[in-house]
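User: Before I run my own analysis I want an independent prediction to cross-check against. Here's the chain; please return only the structure tokens and, at the end, one sentence I can use as a sanity check.
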Amino acid sequence: MAASALVGVGPRPVAKHSVVDLVADEVRRSIVDGSLAAGAPISITALSARLEVSHIPVREALRRLEGQGVIEFRQGRSAVVAPINVADLSGLLDARLLLESDLVARAARSASAAEVAVADEALGDLASADRDDPREVAARHAAFHRALVAPASSAWEQGLLEVLEHAFDRYVPLLLAGASLNGSRDLVPQHRALAAALAARDPRAARPAVRRHVEGTARELRPLLAELA
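Assistant: Structure tokens:
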């Protein structure tokens, strides 16, 4: 082959969202809105038919969700929605505390006025989310936490946080239900201290603010998980 024939050869543009991405997003949304409950079986054949895609991207999407702790493959290679329980929650929140407390403290040292404004806007979006739509609340919650750490997080750290966010999304409906039972629908106050630490450029306030947020979330969810058990 002539050398000239190779000029310009390289990776070709691809769609922004692959079929695997779309399948994973659809399954994740179904889990967050309760259409797929914890422990529910997932039929690859049925999912392929409903989404009008082949088995291959469905299986790959489920493997991706397995890596995020959302799906489990059991004997016979059957897929089920991963259970939610106190042990799973504790491990998840411990990981978030370790990673996010450091990132928020670093962000508080370096955040620009524009980055603080983005976090404030994300907090406002969370405050205005429809509390009857867990998917909307979960999406805006994740967006706020991404904005909070954006001034200091690397691509690797952002990827780790995304995995933790996706795993935590399954607890959002339970958190909202508990807030309603307690007579409070407002989940924003527990996030305001995080935004305030960023705005004040105060890393010393950031770490305890993250700890209080994580521990407060655990206190709210553990009794509800115990009741489910």
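Sanity check: The chain is about 65% helix and 5% strand.
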